[in-house]
Every structure is written in structure tokens, then in C-alpha cells.
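C-alpha cells for chain A. Residues wanted.
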């Protein structure tokens, strides 16, 4: 599953050849390691006059031990800009005034974060227009800066000023290495802060479906690393691999086909108490063009990828097996956003996962439960290793990082959604795709 081109490109001779020929230049990404600082260096903090988040961001950064600068030459670990004070299109010049002189000051694997107000929650049409314009800035920066630098837009609802810490920590850290060009919304409210930000899931119980293979083992490991007790679930045919994952994370293994009749009830009877986290990771593909696909190939993919998560959520809610404060995380795909030839069934199911998040988020929030989804792009797994060479290389290179992601990149994003500190982050779909050139 190794990316030989990326290894060569990061070697001495490779760097010279890549630069000379103008070939894709995959940077070494900064991923999470225990004990590393949150940011790769000092954070330059700016903002438009009248912004409401600057002081809260300063407080969060100072609490992590990060040096915060108002003006200084680089290199900087991150550029963070509070754009909530931009209430008209004329004020968008504040963005240029901040980013133009500092664009070259970021260190490798640096971070850009712009904070705004959700356009629908602004006070005027002019302000809504200006806030929507922020998306173009952050997506473009993600494609311009290179060197493993990521760029995100975080919309914070009025009243959500004290809910930003979990998201800021995630986006500044190596946990978000393969997340770029994304738009995240934080709702109003004040979620509980974990007692230990290194183990935010301590005392929580998490169920991970499809845990035996693909990105499933990485999800189980990261949730366990962050303190959760993990129930690893997969079909009986994957029993040996499933047992290995459960033993690795000191969790429990549950062999169950979630598409079988009565699966929800069997799951409910197995659980000894309410869940704090459920990750709907189980998924299959049966690729063919729709003209050549049979009904079984269509139905099986929809059943595993979409119908089962929908039914399981309903059963757990009916039985009171999702605790107040619980986190539901679905696994979608960029195929569900952009579509993909030969995957009408898969793309339909993964677009449906997005629909499930968006349609149920408001009602679940009333119960104190959040629901979000990740949408992975090209991730280095045993499945993608079997793809034809040309398709595999295209998947790796057609993003701002010029490389495929790792299963841990998806897992880290899921763990951020699962954190108690993300209690007002709901209804979001975050692509873990290195800012793929496909789709929106």
C-alpha cells in the first residue's frame, strides 16, 4: 500500500527531479504524535474590527501553551483570522490586508483558519453576502499555499463563542493533516470541556461498525487511544480479524450482520448500557455501471451503507440506548458528493448518509445528540491498493496534498466529532480528502 512516488519525491534526487520537471510534489504531512505542540510554531492572530471571536481564540491558544502573536515576521505555525467583524463586501479588504503580507510566512504543514458567522444567522443581506465570500478565500488558499499547509473556514453561530476550543485544537494540530478546504459550523451553546484533552473520550463507550478491515481498525485504535471503551462490530465472516482488532484496543468484539432481520434488536440486547458514540463505518461496494448492474448489486450496497445505519439509529433511540450528549458519526465518501462512474449504487448510498445527517441533526440536537459525517477521498487501504495503477495514481495526485490519505486521517476526524468538546458541532460533513479536485 506504500506510495513509492511520494517516497521518491521526498528523497534528495527526487526533490531535484520533481522541481525541475514540475511534477506533483507530495509534502511530508505533520500528523499527530503524543507530546507534540498543538501548532507547528507561533500563531499569528488577526481580525476585522468589531469581531467577536478574537479574545476567545487568544484564550484557547494561550491555554494550550501556544505563543500568540499580533504582528511579527515568520515563520508562523498558523494564521488565524477572525472575520466575524466583516459585515459588508467593502470590508472584505481586511482579508487581503492580513493574508497578503503573511502568505509566505507559514512553516511547512502550517495551518490557516478563518472564523466567520453562518450567513443564515447574520443581521443583514450585505453581511450574509460578505460571510459567504469567505469560502472562496479559504478554498483557494488551500490550493495555493502548498507544503502541507491546510486552510479551513469555521462558521461560529452567535452564542457559540465558548464552543470553539475542540475545533481549534483539531484544526491546528497534526490530527487534521489530510483535511483542507473545508467549511465547518459550530452551533450556539457551551459544551463540556474534557478533563484531559489528550484523552477526551475517557469513560465513554463507542461502537464502531465495519471494524475488522479498511479504515475500521484505525477508527477503533484512535477512539481507544483517546480513552473510549470500544465495541468492535463486523460480520461473522470477519470474525478472526475482528477479534484481532478488539484485542488490540482491549475492547469487545461483536459479530453481527446489521442487514439481517432483527439486527437492531440483537444489538440492543447485547448492549449493557447506553452508548456515548456510534460510528457507522460498515460499507461495501459492488461496482458496475447502472446499465450492467443487477438488482442485487444495487440493493446490497444501499442496505449496508445507508438503510442499516438509519435503522440502527432508530432502534437505539427508541430503546434509550444513546446517552444524552451522544455522538453519531457516519462515513460518507466524496463519491456521494461528486458521483463516480460505475458507482451509482455506492454514490447514492453515500449521498444518503449526508442526507441522514442533515435531515436528523435538528431533532437529535433537541435530545442533546449530535450527528455528523466524514467523507473520505482516496485513502491508502488494501482495497485501493488493488485498483489499476492509473486510477490509483490519479486518486493520489488529484488533491492539494498530491498524495493519498491514511486511515488514521479519517479516524482522527471522527474522534474530533466524538469529543465532548464538539457538543455543538452537528449537521456537518467534512471531507478527509486532502482537498480533492473532485466535487465541491
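Reply:
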Amino acid at each position: 500500500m506504500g506510495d513509492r512516488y511520494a517516497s521518491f519525491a521526498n528523497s534528495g534526487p527526487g526533490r531535484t527531479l520533481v522541481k525541475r520537471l514540475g511534477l506533483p510534489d507530495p509534502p511530508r504531512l505533520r500528523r499527530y504524535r503524543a507530546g507534540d505542540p498543538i501548532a507547528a510554531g507561533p500563531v499569528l492572530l488577526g481580525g476585522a474590527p468589531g469581531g467577536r471571536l478574537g479574545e476567545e481564540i487568544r484564550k484557547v491558544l494561550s491555554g494550550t501553551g501556544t505563543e500568540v502573536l499580533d504582528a511579527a515576521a515568520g515563520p508562523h505555525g498558523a494564521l488565524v483570522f477572525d472575520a466575524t467583524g466583516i459585515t459588508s463586501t467593502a470590508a472584505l479588504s481586511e482579508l487581503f490586508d492580513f493574508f497578503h503580507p503573511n502568505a509566505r510566512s507559514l512553516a511547512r504543514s502550517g495551518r490557516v483558519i478563518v472564523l466567520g458567522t453562518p450567513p443564515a444567522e447574520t443581521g443583514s443581506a450585505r453581511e450574509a453576502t460578505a460571510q459567504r465570500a469567505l469560502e472562496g478565500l479559504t478554498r483557494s488558499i488551500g490550493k495555493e499555499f502548498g507544503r502541507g499547509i491546510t486552510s479551513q473556514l469555521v462558521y461560529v453561530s452567535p452564542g457559540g463563542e465558548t464552543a470553539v476550543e475542540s475545533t481549534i485544537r483539531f484544526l491546528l494540530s497534526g490530527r487534521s493533516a489530510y483535511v483542507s478546504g473545508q467549511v465547518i459550523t459550530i452551533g450556539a451553546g457551551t459544551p463540556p470541556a474534557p478533563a484531559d484533552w489528550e484523552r477526551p473520550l475517557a469513560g465513554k463507550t463507542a461502537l464502531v461498525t465495519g471494524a475488522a478491515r479498511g479504515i475500521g481498525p484505525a477508527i477503533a485504535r484512535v477512539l481507544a487511544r483517546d480513552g473510549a471503551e470500544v465495541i468492535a462490530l463486523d460480520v461473522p465472516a470477519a470474525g478472526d480479524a475482528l477479534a484481532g482488532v478488539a484485542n488490540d484496543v482491549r475492547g469487545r468484539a461483536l459479530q453481527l450482520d446489521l442487514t439481517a432481520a432483527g439486527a437492531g434488536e440483537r444489538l440492543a440486547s447485547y448492549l449493557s448500557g447506553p452508548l456515548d458514540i456510534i460510528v457507522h463505518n460498515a460499507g461495501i461496494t459492488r461496482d458496475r455501471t447502472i446499465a450492467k448492474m443487477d438488482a442485487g448489486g444495487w440493493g446490497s450496497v444501499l442496505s449496508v451503507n445507508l438503510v442499516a445505519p438509519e435503522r440502527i439509529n432508530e432502534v437505539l433511540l427508541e430503546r434509550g440506548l444513546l446517552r444524552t450528549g451522544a455522538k453519531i458519526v457516519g462515513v460518507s465518501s466524496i463519491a456521494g458528493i461528486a458521483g463516480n462512474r460505475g458507482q451509482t449504487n455506492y454514490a447514492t448510498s453515500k449521498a444518503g448518509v449526508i442526507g441522514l445527517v442533515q435531515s436528523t441533526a435538528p431533532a437529535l440536537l433537541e435530545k442533546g445528540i449530535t450527528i455528523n459525517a466524514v467523507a473520505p477521498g482516496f485513502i491508502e487501504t488494501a482495497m485501493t491498493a488493488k485498483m489499476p495503477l492509473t486510477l490509483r495514481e490519479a486518486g493520489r495526485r488529484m488533491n492539494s496534498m498530491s498524495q493519498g490519505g491514511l486511515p488514521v486521517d479519517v479516524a482522527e476526524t471522527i474522534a474530533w466529532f466524538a469529543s465532548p468538546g464538539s457538543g455543538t458541532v452537528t449537521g456537518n460533513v467534512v471531507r478527509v480528502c486532502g482537498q480533492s479536485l473532485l466535487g465541491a
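The chain has two domains: 31-186, 205-432. The domain at 31-186 is CATH 3.40.50.720 (Rossmann fold).
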